[in-house]
């Protein structure tokens, strides 16, 4: 009788499958994954999986949808279909069309944390790792940027362009949990530590940090830093990977409650079941997918 891990290995070979996981997945999912990364790295990986027929995507829906848009001929599975990013649900295609009518001279840059129907309305996508680079790459002086208002603010501080957030108050409920007072307290408690936060955090939290980085940016920063202690202001499981890859360094969560419940719906058992049954297939309407694909590919080109 095979245990879950052995069964997953057997099914992966049988189905010619690969497992991709976001940095916020639990340690047991990260351990069974063939590749763990941030949103941008996962998009790029999804373009490089020619040899696999099946992809099990351990992340939220927009990440799996992006893989499906880039690979219409492959079977993209998600272990729990309920794993949805609430921020992505905050901006629908209709609202973008209205904003475009109000600002016909503006480019539309959408965060990859968005619905497929919204991506289809974008000129180009971005992630938190490349948002500034993407906005800089455009000839436009005015940019409609959504759905994350905090990432829009982060970009507006680094480019000489007008950034208009759509919607007004798009946000991530996990990164909204971080407060300035907690950072001040931790700074006093650990004066030698460096504070790293994600650009989805509120403006004053970003301003109080030493570095504002995507999850992949945190991995690279810590790997090349001479610093020994880090206070980490993003989803709690980010620390799982940081600790595994940097056993000689210390990581202090800025907030133990910062858990993305939506990401945590995937379990090893559900990964096994989804490989076994191949029922939870991620599909995107062909017309929407074709338009969204252009915006995703433009982003990948700019990030090379
Ligand atoms: P990264 O692109 O930094 O991995 O972030 C994705 C995300 O959902 C953050 O909440
Ligand atoms: Fe969405 Fe926030 Fe979860 Fe990231 S952490 S997937 S933005 S809810």
Summarize the structure.
The chain has 304 residues and is an alpha/beta fold.
The CATH topology label of the largest domain is: Rossmann fold
Distance between the termini: 46 Å
In the sheet with the most strands, the strands line up as 2-1-3-4
Number of β-strand runs? 12
Give the class from helix and strand content and strand pairing.
Answer: alpha/beta
**SSE arrangement, N to C:** HEHEHEHEHEHEHEHEHEHEHEHEHH
Major beta-sheet overview: 4 strands, parallel
Give start-end ranges of low-pLDDT stretches.
Answer: none
Described by the principal axes of the CA atoms, the overall outline is globular
| Estimated helix fraction | 40-55%
Compute the average pLDDT. Answer: 96
Written description of the protein model:
This protein is an alpha/beta fold. The protein folds into three domains: 4-83 and 263-284, NadA-like (Rossmann fold, 3-Layer(aba) Sandwich); 88-172, NadA-like (Rossmann fold, 3-Layer(aba) Sandwich), CATH 3.40.50.10800; 175-253, 3-Layer(aba) Sandwich (Rossmann fold), CATH 3.40.50. Helices cover 41% and strands 16% of the residues. It has 14 helices and twelve strands. Strand 9, helix 10 and strand 10 form a beta-alpha-beta unit. Helix 3 (39-46) runs parallel beside helix 4. The radius of gyration is 19 Å and the shape is globular. The termini are far apart. The structure holds 1,3-dihydroxyacetonephosphate (13P) and iron/sulfur cluster. Residues 60, 85-87, 113, 172-174, 200, 235, 260, 262-263 line the site of iron/sulfur cluster.
